[in-house]
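Example record

Each entry pairs one chain with its bound ligand, zinc ion.
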Amino acid sequence: MQLRVLGCSGGIGGVARTTSFLLGDRVLVDAGTGVGDLPLDALCGIDHVFLTHAHFDHIACLPMLLDTVIGARRQPVTVHALPETIATLQVHVFNWQLWPDFSVIPDADNGVLRWAPIAVGESCDLDGLRMTALPAQHTVPALGYLFETADGAMAFSGDSADCPAFWGALGRVERLRALIIETAFSNREAGLARVSQHYAPETLLPALARIDPSVDVWLTHLKPLDASCIVAEARNGVHRIAALNGGQTLDF
Ligand SMILES: [Zn+2]
Ligand SMILES: [Zn+2]
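Structure tokens for the complex follow.
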């Protein structure tokens, strides 16, 4: 299975795109601005979207994705998320004011959007890919995800401050090859990281000590102005640690 990074930045500008990963051809994880770079046939082939949380940088392209593919879809696009995330998007986005309610378009029995609530610890099996919701700690209800195939596993933190339950869950994963972990802020902005519930290197490094040195660590959601500083501060001399890049592919 291949993960393609459509977006992994904590902001916009130039080539920066916000969080979205494509797993194989059919599964999207988050729907940030990177989705807009996909060609039309790839957009029409997306069957499942797994959301980490409702923040705008992770859902910005979901409304326009549904609007774009509606004429080409025989089956709905299933959007998996926490019930609280679904409720937020129903009330604040798909409310006929900010955007139409695509769960009842083209008609009430046949919407192009199908909501699928998921809870921490629950898994969803899709043609050889198992998606499991992992705990996260953020300013709104949020998830990480574990992606597993017969060959190996990869974990993604979503947006999170330090979350002991996330690291505990990783400790039970066999064949974990890589971890995509958000590190939005540098240490000089650790106060901002604290109030917005993100990692900075000073909170990430003690947590990383809990995972095996063989696991590759990819940093994501870096604030564009501080990206190189964050990467330098996050090196621990134990793990292979590098910044994730837009357009990059990872196999697992
Ligand atoms: Zn967030
Ligand atoms: Zn975010």
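The mean pLDDT is 97.
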